[in-house]
């Protein structure tokens, strides 16, 4: 255990400060082509014409790939979890967000690749767009997805992530106060310093060497293998040096399409997104719409919570059903609420597809829950620490999805913050612990939710 | 990249003017901060480019009360000058961009309507500066506001102004150094005692604020009046709504400093 | 055209309007400077041109014909780190490392021209440089430490360290 408590230098620190760390864009191989994408200039449209023959004739162009070149056009990032595929690798007969890739041109240099993109003949028939998740359910809303405007494939083909726990009706009947809030955090772009980039080298033995900035090499391996119908033992991914990701490099953004172009050209191909493309077409943290209604007693117990979440998934599902599931499990935050009624929808819009970012689905609900806790404190004139300590998770409390907590740290964290900020706690709150509820910490309404099973 | 571009690197102001000729087909590279990325990304594909790095157009000349600034003078070389120009220059970009960006480039900054830019322009307008430029019809000397209204195919040679009695500059903080200032107000009490005000970020190029100047003795009234002189827009760095609320504040502060 | 890069005089064949960044990376294979935005907005491509920090993506190579260019590779090697490089390692100022080449070049110039360990002055000097990992705190600490010579790569067994910054906004 020499490492614990020691101050260890970063293994890659010296490489970073001397410019010797090799990022994907720093690799150079003989005969490498540069790639440029044709991306949708519109938010939602049918593609009525796509002809690449002129592009293929542009001097210096070696390969143009479109949907017709992809062995398996649709493959879902979460197929392994039973979430069906909905997103084509390259757009086929429609585009659903501005910046969606339609074709990739590989050429001797970027200028030739850009000229090739300009020579692709394409026509669009624009369609109505949907931007506000609250309008997705209106009968006259634009339809943006073949599944409808919200994801319909949760377990048992439910169209929402639903949690029911305890007796929500009784909680609201017993409440002294009903406190509501609506919380709407915006989309956030990760802005890694290194934009999306990959380089794929077709080797003489038939394998592909894939240099990628991905955060998730094994994810990428499966996605590439499925789309291209190439067995895993023909794919070698070189990764591990990521110029910032923050969740935005979990999606397999570029390497599959680059590999397709490299296979068609029979030459190494590098595809590096410009910063403009990164802003336009790389996935973002989702915008969320969250409505919370709490049943609260005058002395500061939360008896029940009703919550509605609309998760803006953008144009395709990607990881959103999983993100919403995590979100639902955490919709009581670090607190124990016995009676719950949660409905969450993954809503499709014409935004760029959204993805993981630092907490994935949990960050949004934590923001909403803590803001709502403060709202309750303000409206009822409670002590912000004592209100939170009262409802804080304890050992053997159960989560919304009925996981029994074994070691929750909420009480300790709150006491530490109170100490650090000079907030005097009343003796009972200063003496509170994470140990299982008893006595004054175990009012009647919490007795049934305690469990030692299910973890 | 840009194989076909003819690149000229004149080594004197005369050679620069001769190489520029009547302009038209010539792309000017001053410091490069605006044009080089546009060329890199293929937005601009010049047939002929004029690189002014060695053209001898830089320098600040202060003789008596007249200040003359060469077109290739870096923005950082202005930062020690009196207000409004000095603090306006010091507020632009970051130290590396200020070292590289030039006065001429700033006066020629291409500004699509949705993206006000050209941070120095307001200070020059407030100072009543004049621009000397060359191009079709030969050399031209004109007030900076006139130049901003008709600057296509001109090569800026220098900018001249009379040292004011007093000057002031107030700005919103930039969210990021790479952005233009969302909103800034420059003011000067000129040698004849008159007050001139100008804003950047309030229209595609810098604008005089004549209605505010007319109320200069009452800074609060002047601030409100200034709203009549501008065309505020939403863009990536600020909403028009926010600019509408801040402009009167900046005008008031500038007038209070001018006394 | 010729430029001297980290002491080596090299011929440049790229067209004159090519950015110095692309000349360095794509023609001369000097890949320390990074293409973070190629629009002057991030600072990852900053190099020294005749001793002054310049965004190489904003610099047309024909405008610096004959110049001396120093990139992060020219400031020190793995077995001979400069003070700024040592401090960046020791204070964990490099995480993903993509902004580091520009940061190290700019910080070196700041200290070489007499910059102090004052937090606000360091912030102003590095203002054009974007980092998405560190929140800047550790970078500023590293630059301040390099000013005072307060770094030691061999320290591995002690937890914690003393911040050496001055200024009021710690």
Topology:
The complex is a heterotrimer of chains A (455), B (259) and C (170).
Chain A: H1 13-18, E1 33-39, E2 45-51, H2 53-56, E3 61-65, E4 94-95, E5 101-107, H3 110-119, E6 121-126, E7 161-165, H4 168-174, E8 177-183, E9 197-202, E10 208-212, H5 217-228, E11 235-238, H6 255-265, E12 269-272, H7 275-281, E13 284-285, E14 288-296, E15 302-314, H8 320-329, E16 339-348, E17 354-355, H9 362-380, H10 384-391, H11 410-421, H12 427-430, H13 444-447
Parallel strand pairs in A: 1-12, 10-11, 13-17, 15-16
Antiparallel strand pairs in A: 1-5, 2-4, 2-6, 3-5, 7-16, 8-14, 9-10, 9-12, 14-15
Chain B: E1 6-8, H1 13-20, E2 26-29, H2 35-40, E3 48-51, E4 60-63, E5 66-70, H3 85-90, H4 95-100, H5 103-108, H6 121-126, E6 130-135, E7 140-143, H7 144-149, E8 154-162, E9 166-171, E10 184-189, E11 195-200, E12 207-208, H8 210-214, H9 219-226, H10 240-258
Parallel strand pairs in B: 1-3, 2-3
Antiparallel strand pairs in B: 4-5, 5-8, 6-7, 6-8, 9-10, 10-11, 11-12
Chain C: E1 2-5, E2 8-11, H1 20-27, E3 46-49, E4 52-55, E5 68-70, H2 83-90, H3 100-112, H4 119-125, H5 137-148
Parallel strand pairs in C: 1-5
Antiparallel strand pairs in C: 1-2, 3-4, 3-5
Which chains make the largest contact?
A-C, 35 and 48 residues
Low-confidence stretches of chain A: none
Largest sheet of chain A: 7 strands, mixed
What's the architecture of the largest domain in chain B in CATH terms?
2-Layer Sandwich
Number of discrete domains of chain B: 2
What is this structure, in a nutshell?
The complex is a heterotrimer of chains A (455), B (259) and C (170). Chain B has 259 residues and is an alpha+beta fold. Chain B contains ten helices and twelve strands.
Describe the 3D structure.
The complex is a heterotrimer of chains A (455), B (259) and C (170). Chain A is α+β, with helices and mostly antiparallel strands. Chain A contains 13 helices and 17 strands. A seven-stranded mixed beta sheet of chain A has the order 3-5-1-12-9-10-11. Chain A has a five-stranded mixed beta sheet with strand order 7-16-15-14-8. With 259 residues, chain B is α+β, with helices and mostly antiparallel strands. Chain B folds into two domains: 6-111 and 120-162, 2-Layer Sandwich (Uridine Diphospho-n-acetylenolpyruvylglucosamine Reductase, domain 3); 166-258, CO dehydrogenase flavoprotein, C-terminal domain (Enolase-like, domain 1), CATH 3.30.390.50. Chain B has ten helices and twelve strands. In chain B, the strands form three sheets. In chain B, strands 4-5-8-6-7 form a five-stranded antiparallel beta sheet. Chain B has a four-stranded antiparallel beta sheet with strand order 9-10-11-12. The longest helix of chain B has 19 residues, at 240-258. The N and C termini of chain B lie far apart (54 Å). In chain C, helix 2 packs across helix 5. Chain C is of the alpha+beta class and 170 residues long. In chain C, strands 2-1-5-3-4 form a five-stranded mixed beta sheet, with helices on one face. Chain C has two domains: 2-74, Ubiquitin-like (UB roll); 76-170, [2Fe-2S]-binding domain (DNA polymerase, domain 1), CATH 1.10.150. Chain C is 28% helix and 11% strand.
């Amino acid at each position: 255990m020499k490492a614990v408590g020691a101050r260890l230098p970063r293994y890659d620190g010296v490489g970073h400060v001397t410019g010797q760390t090799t990022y994907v864009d720093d690799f150079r191989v003989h005969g490498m082509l540069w790639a440029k994408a044709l991306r949708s200039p519109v938010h939602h449209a049918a593609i009525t014409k796509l002809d690449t023959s002129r592009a293929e004739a542009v001097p210096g162009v070696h390969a143009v790939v479109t949907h017709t070149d992809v062995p398996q056009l649709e493959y879902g990032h979460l197929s392994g979890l039973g979430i069906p595929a909905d997103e084509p690798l390259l757009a086929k007969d429609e585009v659903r967000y501005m910046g969606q890739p339609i074709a990739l041109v590989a050429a001797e240099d970027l200028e030739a690749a850009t000229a090739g993109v300009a020579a692709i003949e394409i026509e669009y028939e624009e369609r109505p767009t949907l931007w506000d998740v609250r309008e997705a359910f209106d009968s006259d809303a634009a339809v943006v997805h073949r599944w409808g405007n919200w994801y319909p494939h949760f377990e048992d083909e439910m169209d929402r992530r639903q949690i029911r726990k305890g007796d929500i009706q009784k909680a609201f009947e017993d409440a002294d106060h009903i406190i509501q809030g609506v919380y709407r955090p915006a989309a956030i772009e990760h802005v890694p310093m290194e934009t999306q980039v990959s380089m794929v080298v077709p080797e003489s033995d038939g394998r592909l060497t894939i240099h990628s900035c991905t955060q998730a090499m094994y994810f990428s391996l499966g996605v590439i293998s499925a789309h291209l119908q190439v067995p895993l033992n023909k794919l070698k991914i070189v990764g591990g040096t990521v110029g910032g990701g923050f969740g935005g490099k979990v999606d397999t953004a570029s390497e599959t399409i680059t590999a397709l172009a490299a296979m068609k050209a029979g030459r190494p191909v590098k595809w590096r997104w410009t910063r403009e493309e990164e802003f336009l077409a790389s996935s973002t943290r989702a915008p969320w719409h969250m409505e919370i209604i709490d049943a609260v007693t005058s002395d500061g117990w939360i008896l029940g919570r009703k919550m509605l979440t609309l998760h803006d998934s953008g144009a395709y599902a990607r990881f959103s059903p999983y993100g919403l599931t995590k979100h639902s499990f955490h919709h009581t935050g670090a607190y124990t609420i016995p009676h719950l009624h949660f409905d969450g929808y993954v809503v499709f819009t014409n935004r760029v597809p959204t993805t993981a970012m630092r907490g994935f689905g949990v960050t949004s609900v934590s923001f909403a829950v803590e803001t709502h806790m403060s709202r309750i404190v303000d409206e009822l004139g409670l002590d912000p620490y004592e209100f939170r300590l009262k409802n804080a998770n304890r050992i053997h409390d159960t989560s919304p999805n009925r996981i029994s907590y074994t070691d929750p740290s909420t009480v300790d964290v709150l006491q530490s913050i109170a100490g650090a900020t000079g907030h005097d706690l009343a003796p009972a709150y200063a003496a509170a612990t994470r140990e299982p509820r008893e006595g004054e910490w175990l009012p009647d309404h919490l007795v049934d939710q305690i469990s030692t099973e299910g973890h | 990249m840009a194989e076909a571009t003819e690149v000229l690197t004149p080594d004197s102001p005369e050679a620069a003017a001769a190489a520029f000729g009547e302009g038209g087909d010539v792309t000017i590279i001053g410091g490069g901060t605006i044009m080089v990325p546009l060329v890199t990304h293929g937005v601009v594909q010049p047939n002929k480019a004029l690189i002014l790095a060695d053209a001898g157009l830089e320098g600040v000349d202060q003789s008596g009360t007249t200040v003359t600034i060469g077109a290739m003078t870096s923005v950082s070389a202005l930062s020690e000058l009196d207000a409004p120009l000095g603090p306006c220059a010091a507020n632009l970009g970051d130290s590396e961009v200020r070292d590289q960006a030039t006065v001429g480039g700033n006066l020629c900054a291409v500004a699509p309507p949705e993206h006000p830019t050209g941070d120095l322009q307001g200070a020059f307008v407030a100072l009543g500066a004049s621009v000397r430029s060359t191009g079709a019809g030969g050399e031209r000397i004109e007030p900076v506001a006139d130049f901003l209204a008709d600057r296509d195919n001109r090569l800026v040679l220098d900018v001249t102004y009379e040292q004011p009695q007093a000057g002031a500059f107030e700005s919103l903080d930039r969210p990021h150094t790479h952005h233009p200032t969302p909103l800034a107000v420059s003011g000067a009490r000129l040698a004849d005692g008159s007050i001139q005000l100008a804003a950047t970020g309030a229209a595609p190029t810098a604008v005089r604020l004549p209605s505010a100047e007319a109320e200069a003795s009452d800074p609060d009234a002047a601030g409100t009046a200034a709203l009549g002189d501008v065309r505020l827009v939403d863009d990536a760095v600020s909403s028009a709504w926010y600019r509408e609320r801040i402009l009167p504040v900046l005008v008031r502060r500038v007038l209070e400093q001018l006394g | 055209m010729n430029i001297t890069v980290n002491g080596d005089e090299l011929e440049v064949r790229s067209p004159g309007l090519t950015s110095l960044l692309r000349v360095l990376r794509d023609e001369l294979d000097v890949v320390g400077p990074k293409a973070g935005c190629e629009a002057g907005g991030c600072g990852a491509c900053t190099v020294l041109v005749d001793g002054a920090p310049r965004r190489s993506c904003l610099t047309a190579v024909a405008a610096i014909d004959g110049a001396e260019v120093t990139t992060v590779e020219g400031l020190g090697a793995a077995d001979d780190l400069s003070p700024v490089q040592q401090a960046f390692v020791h204070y964990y100022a490099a995480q993903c490392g993509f902004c580091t080449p520009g940061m190290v070049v700019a910080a070196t110039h700041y200290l070489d021209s007499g910059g102090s360990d004052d937090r606000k002055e360091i912030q102003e000097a590095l203002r054009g440089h974007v980092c998405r990992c560190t929140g800047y705190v550790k970078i500023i600490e590293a630059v301040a430490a390099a000013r005072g010579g307060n770094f030691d790569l061999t320290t591995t067994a002690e937890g914690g360290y003393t911040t050496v910054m001055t200024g009021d906004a710690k």
